[in-house]
Amino acid sequence: MDERFFEPPYAFSAHMGMEMVDWREGYARFELALRPEHMNRHDNLHGGVHATLLDTVMGYSGCWTGDPEVRQMALTLSLNVQYLSRPRGHRLIAEGTKTGGGKSTFFAEAQISDETGEVVAKGTGVFRYRRR
């Protein structure tokens, strides 16, 4: 990834431990090393972690401007999550892709897998661009 486009983590993503790995036109990838605080009371990954990662990578996938000085932001209008499996590994890999849209809204899909290749969740979303 071109370092000019790297964005430092905002407070919540830093708290979660999310790392931006790749970001380009129509695509974003974040990774997350699993920690005990990501687990629910059954010691399984909390569903909110899946939702957060999916929402983040889909939002970024539609906000690429190609200019590191111009930031585009978006608001989530709809987020759908399909929980598929428990992670087998210790690191989550979330990849989001912009699938369409227009001047004010965009659509995206995303998938989370772990480092073993196990697909743990998928999602779709609708986002509205914020005015600059």
UniProtKB/TrEMBL annotation:
It holds the Pfam family 4HBT. The keyword Hydrolase applies. Keywords: Hydrolase. InterPro entries: ACOT13 (IPR039298), HotDog_dom_sf (IPR029069), PAAI_dom (IPR003736), Thioestr_dom (IPR006683). Residues 44-121 form the Thioesterase domain. This is Uncharacterized domain 1-containing protein. One of its GO terms (molecular function) is fatty acyl-CoA hydrolase activity. SUPFAM superfamilies: Thioesterase/thiol ester dehydrase-isomerase. It comes from Salipiger marinus. It comes from the Bacteria. Belongs to the thioesterase PaaI family.
